[in-house]
Amino acid sequence: MSTQLNFISVDLVQNVVRDLKIGKAAGFGGLMAEHICLAHTVLLVHLSCLFTMLYKHSMVPDDFGRGIVIPLLKNVDGNRFTTDNYRGITLSPVISKLFEMVLLSQFKDELISDPFQFGIKPKSSCSHAVFTFKTVIDYYLKK
Angle 10-18/94-107 helices, nearest 10 degrees? Predict the structure, then answer.
């Protein structure tokens, strides 16, 4: 069954804004979650209109896909001169994060992934995949 979304309500945007994580670095535009959270409530009306139009016209601005990639050191005691000891994070624009959160809140029941997908999934991570892999290997080595 497909969810029909006629418009994105101000209440929905307000609920999503409440879930924003504050204290995170700004994206390339310099806008932070705090700017949205502490802004006048009329901003929620404008965001609601913007998100509704983006959804209805099946369009996403190019800047929503831009981000700043920051290398983070995995192990401080490891070799700082090898790329294997770094992982990248992307600082995305807060408005694009909000739009994504709005869409996810509306369509999460229709977005189903394979049970063997571990990354980018709630309550799941690479460590779960490694554990599963190791458990399977141990099982077959014992047999």
Answer: 110
